[in-house]
Amino acid sequence: MDAVNPKYVLRNYLCQSAIDAAEQGDYEEVRRLLKLMERPYEDQPGMEKYARLPPAWAYRPGVCMLSCSS
Fold first, then answer.
1. What is the full DSSP assignment across 3-64?
2. Which of 18, 34, 35, 54 could form a disulfide bond with 29, CB atoms 3.0-4.6 angstroms apart?
3. Tens of pLDDT along 34-61?
4. 15-46 in b/e burial notation, b at 16+ Cβ within 10 A?
5. 68, burial (CB in 10 Å: exposed 0-12, middle 13-18, buried 19+)
6. 6 near 40, Cβ under 8 Å?
């Protein structure tokens, strides 16, 4: 399963957090996510928080619960 399922998934709440920071002139989170997504199937030390399930606040409509038909 690990070979076909990425450890890291670029979730909406991660993107939005990076966008919010970038709009304030801080592009570090954008850079971090781009680097992370270069190797989404591999363990990456220090990046464990990006492999966790979304936090509770991210389950509200419009943040994490979108589908292709939304």
1. TTS-S----HHHHHHHHHHHHTT--HHHHHHHHHHTSTTS--TT-GGGGSPPPGGGGSTTTT
2. 18
3. 999 999 999 999 999 999 888 887 776 6
4. eeebeeeeeeeeeebeeebeebeeeeeeeeee
5. exposed
6. yes
Residue reference for tokens 């990006």: 50
Longest dimension (CA), the chain: 39
CA distance 67 to 64: 9
**Are 13 and 7 in contact, with CB atoms under 8 Å apart?**
no
* pTM recorded for the entire structure: 0.76
